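Why this split exists: single-chain examples teach little about how molecules sit against one another. For that reason, every record in the complexes split bundles all components of an assembly together and asks for one structure covering all of them. Below is a record exactly as it appears in the raw files.
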Amino acid sequence: MDGDRTGVLGTRVLRIEDQRLLTVGGTYVDDLDIPELAGAARVTFVRSPLAHALVTAVDASAARGEPGVIAVLTGEDAPPLPDEPLAEPLLAGERVRFVGEPVAMVITDGQYRGEDAAELVSVDYEPLPAVASLDDALADETLLFPATGSNVAGAAGAEDSTGDALFEGCEVVVGATIVNQRVAPVPLEVRGAAATWADDRLTMWASTQNSQLARFAVAGTLGLPPDAVRIITPDVGGGFGAKIAVDREHLAVAWATRHLGRPLRWSETRSENMVAMTHGRAQRQEITIGGTRDGKILAYRFDFVQDSGAYPRAGFLPSLTRLMTSGAYLIPRVECSYKFVLTSTTPIAAYRGAGRPEATAAVERAVDLFAAGIGMDPAEVRRLNVVPPDRFPYTTPTGATYDTGDYAVALDKVLAAAGYGELRAEQAARRERGDRVQLGLGLATYVEITAGDGGGESGRIDIHEDGTATVFTGSSAHGQGHATAWSMLVQEELGIAMGDVTVVHGDTDIIPTGIGTFGSRSLQLGGAAVHKAAGEVKEQARGLAAELAGVTEQDMEFDPRLGVWRVHGESGTDLEWGKIAGAAGPDGLTADVMFTAASPTFPFGAHLAVVEVDTETGKVTLVRHVTVDDAGVLVNPLLAEGQRHGGIAQGAAQALLEEVVYDADGNPLTGTLADYAIITATELPSFELVDSQTPTGINPLGVKGIGEAGTIGSTPAVQNAVVDAVAHLGVRHIDMPTTPQRVWAAIREAANTKAMDTKAEAAR
Amino acid sequence: MKVELTVNGELVAADVEDRMLLVHYLRDVAGLTATNVGCDTTSCGACTVLLDGESVKSCTLLAAQADGASVITVEGLADADGTLHPVQQAFREQHGLQCGFCTPGMVMAIVSLLRENPHPTEEQVRSGLEGNLCRCTGYHNIVKAALAVGRLSGQESTAAENGSAL
């Protein structure tokens, strides 16, 4: 009917965020022009130029004498470290552990004075040997935290190893040592914060994914009760996991603001960001897989070393990787062990996927190695070994319980959409002709875990007397389109038009309870909380409406199409939301919900990458990327596709181009965007997305997380495609990123090996 | 030194440090903060604006170098009544933006690209956007938006594009 407001879920609603972002731009932390920050001084960090050294002296006198310099603060001024063996200071004390580690902070007036003054801070270092590689770390000759006796900060699983017995009965066993390289998150907005100290309260505006978690971190550092800290999240220009809560620089800004008693603002440069924002991935993986010649995988061992960087911020990463060891496959015998080691490099933490892409890349390479080992098409091996639909819920050997899925269907959908048979024929023709440019097809069938943290999320709805609604969400948007999606949920449930719904997030004075955004948790927890709050509002409204109409609750009916209540079957008795809100008590018509799911959800899918490889130069071109990413029910396909596009690009970037590189002394060689090969539009095709929606029963919306799925599937698909393109030349594996140099070298090495084999054959 | 610019049709004049970058002039002097700084190596294009009709990265020019010139930022694209420029409109319709940080620069780069080549192919759009980074969209819908405008263009041009600065 005309004006029907229901049926909005599942439709391609354009974003309500966009008008502002497109015309006047977002208000990111560095854009804030508010009275509280009038006259705020700027913070510039003095950072270590060495990977590992003792700090013997800091002389700030020259800087302090410069015009415009308000203060220089060093490790001596900073609050004492918590009593933990691997504690990370706000400003380095006696030792620096990575290039870029903050040593001092310079507080200045004016736009450019900070960098000038920072150069005048003289720091004496006594260089120590770097611990720049995993082997350096494991050797334990140079220790980053001597008191702990080892660079190994954690380990699991080794005690359960059954050794060679794991592969008993396998006709073919293959393996490899592969690298899941370190990459940089590079949100387009760098890190930043602004803070004030007034009336014994610290207020901080921060570019973060989690204002509430940030509040606890700041309160803890400052020794304040949480309600003496207010965190406000303005627009956030991308996070990708690297803006979860706050980093030491944010904490240092908060501390310095209180210490100096004046408002401060901080915005790092991109070059600082490349060495001081956390990096992601960084695992060296040993994979061994065995099975029968007719394609059944029987056993898989996965041992890896997780690079932690200089401080252990990411203990959860290797455990998530371990949890997802066996991927989408039903493998009878699985073992996984890891070590978590400290190196004198930028700390590692969450980056889109956070632990799951690493597990997926390992098992997907393993499956392809196995397929090559038995001479079977990798699609067929996957079809034979994915968890069959009748096994759900399926508990893996490493303890994950997959909720719902049909992995073989996802695979078949992708193969059909891509025209897999034709592509294989084209590949065979090119191989037959000996074309210079060869075709490679790469597959990944993946499953991942979302909302795996076990926490809940808050959602509150207030209905106002003018008939509009305000949603308060503990979830936090930085590009995902929460305001649009949450408004759609309200419109669907309450019949209040999206345009009359305001979504508020990211101010801890207004929304003290919440967790925020990571692990693709927002819609399934934060969205579900809003959905449930809407349901509670409706229940309250029924009573109020009945009172207004002078009938019993059972006599009232709700018409969600128009968002009105009426006496059952009686026209002319319509009561609109505003009227009902007006009849509510002093608290108004409101519902406040904390939604916690009983368990995580497990999105799944299949990716097929098609690459062309120039066998003379090694240059790889990604020509097609076809995916199924099934994250349950879609609230807004437009938003879900956007998440998939971005994820695919970031995953492909890891497979093709991106890598954070250090030299043997721990110097970063990719410290700017001119050096770090961030992917651009020229290196990517348009993506081909296939629809698939398998609902979950874990939450009332039937949704799973979609934020990271694209990244998880695309990396191994693209890598597998590159190897596949040159497999007929004898290449078995190429580490990421599959740069022209690496691909060319792999082709040469395979040719040399072949030539040597032929020679040896002839000599016999 | 004194730097005088016409920004989105309005005259702005100020005494600034010699070394002030154009992007900081736009943000801090003119108060137009849509134009963002995303890097320090002229790599990301978040600061792209039109200078006398040509797209430039405003982090790589001194304000002094732009003295006397006319600058259009994304704030100057839409009509006074709020009607979006076709590129802005296409970004909205094609979901060409997520976090919005690269968007002002990306939109200006595409406005410039389409002025030079009103009906580009996908390959031409992709190569034309090599200097503008986006981390959210995988470029998919940005390219789609540019192509959508390319298909529409020729029908009408907007006030902003007929302005003296362009």
